[in-house]
Amino acid sequence: MKGPILRGLWLPAFTELLDGDCPIRVATELAPVSGFDLPVVGPIIRHSITYRRIEVVPVLLPISPTPVVAATWQWVTAGQSDFATSSLMEKLQKAFNTNK
Questions:
Q1: How high is the pLDDT of residue 1?
Q2: For the chain, which residues make up each domain, given as ranges?
């Protein structure tokens, strides 16, 4: 995502799912590491961005211990107050009942 309005905004990685794509496979391919504990597909979330309506298929990829990744990545806890997030992130948190 580009543009000044999104600068500094923390969002999870996402991509378009094609018909027949397995959400867990696609999500693990987006992740910078491997070795997840029991990935979970959450309920479909409806979201609007300006004039576009999208459906998001969230996938929770739990992992422990937290591995060290490249300097361009940073692990955060959902709901951390010092990270600017979007209303989509709030919907994702609620979908998995994390840090409500």
A1: 43
A2: 4-95
70, 71, 72, 74 alpha-carbon torsion, rounded to 10°: 90
Residue the block writes with tokens 């987006």: 30
Strand pairing report for 40-41 and 45-49 = unpaired
State the Cα–Cα distance between residues 10 and 81, nearest whole angstrom.
12
Residue for token pair 């300097």: 71
pLDDT per 10-residue tile (average), the chain, 100 residues:
53 86 93 85 88 88 75 68 73 73
Q: Are 71 and 83 in contact (CB under 8 A)?
A: no
pLDDT at 88: 83
